[in-house]
Design a protein that fits this description.
Chain A: This is Anti-sigma factor antagonist. Chain A: Belongs to the anti-sigma-factor antagonist family. Chain A: GO terms for molecular function: anti-sigma factor antagonist activity. The structure holds 2 protein chains of 2 kinds. Chain A contains 4 helices and 6 strands, in the order E-E-H-E-E-H-E-H-E-H. In chain A, strands 1, 2, 3, 4, 5 and 6 form a 6-stranded mixed β-sheet that branches. In chain A, strand 5, helix 3 and strand 6 form a beta-alpha-beta unit. In chain A, helix 1 packs parallel to helix 2. Chain A is globular, with a radius of gyration of 12 Å. By secondary structure, chain B is of the alpha+beta class. The chains are: A alpha/beta, B alpha+beta. At the A-B interface, helix 2 and helix 3 of A face helix 1, helix 2 and helix 3 of B.
């Protein structure tokens, strides 16, 4: 797994690449917590280079979404591949998370809020 | 049957099966992924099947490692994969506390963000991803046999 974070137009973008699994989920969660510690309220989780996610990874996404809601902010999950989307679908989380096709679209939508 | 203390990927056994020891629990997830990738190539799984089987095994391994040894002890966790007509058979054996995943109730997936609990999806995924599941409690531990058809 590789993590990249950037801030664009006031929107914090965390890109999670490779495999988000039970062995590295805590590292991804720590990266989100660090970003949140910088005081952002608008987040994009960019999954466009994510190949695999397990329930440990979904847990990180759910924690991030709950934390963002507590901050009265917004979080968009962007760029899911078919394989990753299928796992989200199975978890029922697609119904309660905001998604976008690409990170650029998600960033633009959040920058306008 | 493969020796329980093998540390590395096995070549195909006499029946074409191969096995991996996952005693290291969460630290074995990377090795599990590599094993499933090479096994999938050898047995001709589609990428989707390979991913689904890997996911199911990771979820089970995470559960065993996280909840299976409340009193400590030395984990012995073995995954054996074999080809069966039209699909694959996976057998996961451990020496952990008794746990029948089939007896676990499915989570409520309709809750909103605030009330949605964190976790509780792993076993549900396994049930969704596999076509057949059989649980046995043996004197040595748990054995879960799973079949997935292509």
């Amino acid at each position: 797994m590789e993590l990249k974070s950037a801030v664009k137009d006031g929107v914090a973008v965390l890109s999670i690449e490779g495999r988000l699994d039970g062995q590295n989920a805590s590292e991804a969660e720590a990266a989100f917590v660090r970003l949140a510690g910088e005081g952002h309220t608008r987040y994009v989780l960019d999954f466009s280079a994510l190949q695999y996610i397990s329930s440990a990874g979904l847990r990180v996404v759910l924690v991030a979404a709950k934390k963002t809601k507590a901050l009265k902010g917004s979080l968009i999950c962007a760029g899911m591949s078919e394989a990753v989307r299928e796992v989200f679908e199975m978890s029922g989380l697609l119904g309660i998370l905001e998604t976008a096709d690409t990170a650029a679209q998600a960033t633009a939508a959040l920058a306008a809020r | 049957m493969t020796a329980r203390n093998d540390r590395v990927d096995e070549g195909p056994g006499a029946d074409g099966s191969c096995a991996i020891a996952l005693d290291e629990g969460l630290s074995a997830i990377g090795a599990l992924h590599r094993f499933m990738e090479s096994t999938g190539e050898r047995l001709g799984w589609s990428p989707r099947t390979a991913l689904q089987l890997t996911l199911a095994c990771e979820e089970l391994l995470t559960n065993i490692a996280t909840y299976g040894y409340p009193d400590g002890g030395e984990p012995r966790i073995l995954l054996t994969v074999a080809k069966v007509a039209g699909g694959a058979r996976l057998v996961l054996e451990d020496n952990a506390a008794a746990f029948d995943p089939l007896a676990k109730a499915d989570p409520d997936l309709t809750q909103d963000l605030d009330s949605r609990p964190i976790g509780g999806l792993g076993v549900y995924f396994v049930k969704r991803l596999m076509d057949e599941l059989e649980y046995e409690r043996l004197p040595s531990g748990n054995r879960l046999t799973m079949i997935k058809y292509e």
